[in-house]
Design brief:
Distance between the termini of chain A: 17 Å
CATH superfamily of chain A: Putative cyclase
Largest sheet of chain A: 9 strands, mixed
Strand order of the largest sheet of chain A: 1-13-11-5-7-9-10-4-12
CATH architecture of chain A: 3-Layer(bba) Sandwich
Number of helices of chain A: 5
Structural class of chain A: alpha/beta
Oligomer: homodimer
CATH class of chain A: Alpha Beta
Chain lengths: 216, 216
């Protein structure tokens, strides 16, 4: 079994969605003199590599606390690195993967944008699916959609229409994924299990791809 | 594939280790009027169902940020419900599982103590392994040890000797597990993937057992 870490490290000063609260890691105790280390964590639910649940945009939508099987399943990586210049992941591009989409639980867009993590370029110009592509994906029995960008909507979006199309379909969204180039296209288990936060609209996660195991 | 949730819910007022900081879930935004829900999380690394990494007690010990394969593997549940009165899980009791211990990555003590979660009884009188039992377990190629109690040392311990024996052996410790009665003895994948916190001594986790998949 091989576990591929698809997660950015949570640390003070890390990149955050424009205008959002940052991360604070407060020392509660240290080995000298307390005999042990302990940190107090302070950060928003949408920190770093994280999920959005329905509740993020939909009143009464699903939260982080129930049905953990929604957060683990068969992954399919779609290479979208050539879609960068167009800033759009189109339905016509996705259709070539139709037979694979029928076998997948999670679709993961590999846009290559994680190479800009830690720079201002990370927050603009990244490719996202358009509404036609998003509606096309809601026709499959998926658990969720992941991406290595900060959002499924362009950074200047006020309506978050792509988020809402996916969340209304019951999908979980995973943003700010890392290391996607280390994944095969298929044949791995993807896990984005969130903290079990009461009424949680989302959660930072330790996203991983697990090879050498099977799920159905 | 079936996913069994082994995690207590994170919420304000939840049980916490005596003297430790509590949980605060602060609303940063609400659908009315902001158009979306978002929470700010405030809690210690050892909140609810959580892991201890080496770094919790050992300077320079492993932290949460590296080698995620340490946090997922084949589980073995050991029924310790009859060890409650003695308050001790003894080597002589564990030895009957020797052949199974050789095949496991994670040993999970099912003491039944999670039935006291939310009451003062949860924090005293729970069974823990003694030093002889702990040293016996370090002789196996394990990734970690889990329990449905608040600690691997008695609540009045100042030295945390059992923690230190396990952590010095490179094990991850998982405390405050829930719903263990829903697990089979073997034949499941156990996951306790932590948040990827820089220099993290531990992390709350979404602990699960996954049935219908294989790992080796």
């Amino acid at each position: 079994m091989q576990v591929i870490d698809l997660t950015h490290t949570i640390e003070e000063g890390m990149p955050a969605y424009p205008g959002s609260e940052g991360v604070r890691l407060e020392s509660l105790a240290g080995i000298d003199p307390d005999g042990y280390n302990e940190l107090m964590l302070h950060f928003p639910t949408h920190t770093g590599t994280h999920i959005d649940c329905g509740r993020h945009f939909l009143a009464g939508g699903p939260d982080t606390s129930r049905n953990p099987e929604r957060f683990i399943g068969r992954g399919l990586v779609i290479d979208c690195q050539r879609q960068g210049k167009a800033r759009i992941i189109a339905k016509t591009y996705l259709q070539q993967f139709e037979s694979r989409l029928k076998q997948a639980d999670f679709v993961i867009f590999h846009t290559g944008w994680s190479r800009f993590w830690g720079t201002t370029d990370y927050f603009s110009g990244f490719p996202v699916p358009d509404q036609e592509a998003a509606r096309y994906l809601t026709g499959f029995q998926l658990k969720g959609i992941g991406t290595d960008t900060v959002s499924f909507d362009h950074i200047d979006s006020h309506e978050f229409q792509i988020h809402k199309i996916f969340l209304a379909a019951g999908f979980t969204l995973i943003e700010n994924l890392a290391n996607l180039k280390k994944l095969p296209m298929e044949g791995f288990l993807f896990s984005c299990l969130p903290l079990k936060i009461k009424d949680g609209d989302g959660s930072p996660v330790r996203a991983v791809g697990v090879l050498g195991t099977t799920g159905n």
